[in-house]
Amino acid sequence: MIKVGVLGARGRMGRAVCEAVDAAEDLELVATVSGRDESLDKLEGVDVVVDFTLPNVVMGNLAWCVEHGIHTVVGVSGFDEKRLDAAREILAADPEVGSVIAPNFGIGAVLMMQFAAKAAKHFDSAEIIEAHHPRKVDAPSGTAVHTARVIAAARAEAELPDMPDATETDPQGARGAEIEGVRIHAIRSAGYVASQEVRFGGPGERFAISHDSLDRASFMPGVLLAVREVVKRPGLTVGIDDLLD
Ligand SMILES: NC(=O)C1=CN([C@@H]2O[C@H](COP(=O)(O)OP(=O)(O)OC[C@H]3O[C@@H](n4cnc5c(N)ncnc54)[C@H](OP(=O)(O)O)[C@@H]3O)[C@@H](O)[C@H]2O)C=CC1
Ligand SMILES: O=C(O)C1=N[C@H](C(=O)O)C[C@H](O)C1
């Protein structure tokens, strides 16, 4: 039995994780921390902490867990390369402790990113449209940023030139955010949980890959897989791609 603690347990994701852990026969939900005023000491003795809090508190949580020899599964968004390096440094303090940090635990979303990376080298143009519920505090989404990075890496490897774009004036930012040369357009709207479409274009053709999380249940198989795997994987694992394989 793996003893699990959940951080951010009263949040949208935290509630779904508590339910999923409770329903899993090989996992036991032994502690929850719901808000920033609650002490992390409640988590002492758990095997794995699942963290779905917020970007401004997640690094402190990670440091506390590593200090206490606890593995972590982290879904909080905002992990750029600098943050991942900081996480590696924190984890170096205990070489037996593992952490899985993933921009998206949805299996379909992971496949969408893998397929986007595969398609990227074949098209002149690639842009990302992400749509989320209006209570999301960060934009663009961590998933969109990660997708932009894998597309940029695939294009660089294939030695593709910059994407064609004659825009000279865009005072309102209508062309969206740019991450490593890839444009991201973020929608915040009632009626969404998390959706993303990657649109590719080449001579005489368009190609799109899209994924929709309609319910937070979509993230749970990936979260539970990470909980089961992280106890066997010391150090940092980024994304669940390797775990699925
Ligand atoms: N990787 C993935 O697959 C997914 C990642 N996410 C990411 O997960 C994060 C959480 O999303 P979501 O559940 O929608 O957000 P919510 O705002 O619903 O939940 C966050 C919760 O964390 C709590 N919290 C804040 N600080 C602390 C703290 N120090 N200790 C314990 N709890 C704390 C908040 O409590 P209070 O309100 O009292 O401050 C709140 O209940 C976001 O970064 C989101 O982008 C979301 C979905 C999937
Ligand atoms: O805040 C959310 O809801 C989500 N956050 C993650 C992100 O920023 O990519 C994952 C998913 O898109 C849902």
From TrEMBL:
Protein keywords: Amino-acid biosynthesis, Cytoplasm, Diaminopimelate biosynthesis, Lysine biosynthesis, NAD, NADP, Oxidoreductase
Chemical reaction(s) catalysed: (S)-2,3,4,5-tetrahydrodipicolinate + NAD(+) + H2O = (2S,4S)-4-hydroxy-2,3,4,5-tetrahydrodipicolinate + NADH + H(+); (S)-2,3,4,5-tetrahydrodipicolinate + NADP(+) + H2O = (2S,4S)-4-hydroxy-2,3,4,5-tetrahydrodipicolinate + NADPH + H(+)
Binding sites annotated in the UniProt record for (S)-2,3,4,5-tetrahydrodipicolinate: H133, G142, T143
Highest rank taxon of the organism: Bacteria
Segments traversing the membrane: none
Binding, NAD(+): G8, A9, R10, G11, R12, M13, G75, V76, S77, A102, P103, N104, F105
Single GO MF annotation: 4-hydroxy-tetrahydrodipicolinate reductase
SUPFAM superfamilies: Glyceraldehyde-3-phosphate dehydrogenase-like, C-terminal domain, NAD(P)-binding Rossmann-fold domains
Residue ranges occupied by any Dihydrodipicolinate reductase C-terminal domain in the UniProt entry: 108-244
Pfam family, one: DapB_C
Binding site for NADP(+): R36
Gene3D superfamilies in alphabetical order: Dihydrodipicolinate Reductase, domain 2 (3.30.360.10), NAD(P)-binding Rossmann-like Domain (3.40.50.720)
Pathway terms, separated by semicolons: Amino-acid biosynthesis; L-lysine biosynthesis via DAP pathway; (S)-tetrahydrodipicolinate from L-aspartate: step 4/4
Record domain Dihydrodipicolinate reductase N-terminal: where: 2-105
Active site: residue positions: H132, K136
Subcellular location(s) of the protein: Cytoplasm
CDD domains: DHDPR_N
EC code: 1.17.1.8
Quaternary context: Homotetramer.
Record-stated family: Belongs to the DapB family.
Entry function: Catalyzes the conversion of 4-hydroxy-tetrahydrodipicolinate (HTPA) to tetrahydrodipicolinate.
Protein name as catalogued: 4-hydroxy-tetrahydrodipicolinate reductase
Taxonomy of the source species: Bacteria, Bacillati, Actinomycetota, Actinomycetes, Glycomycetales
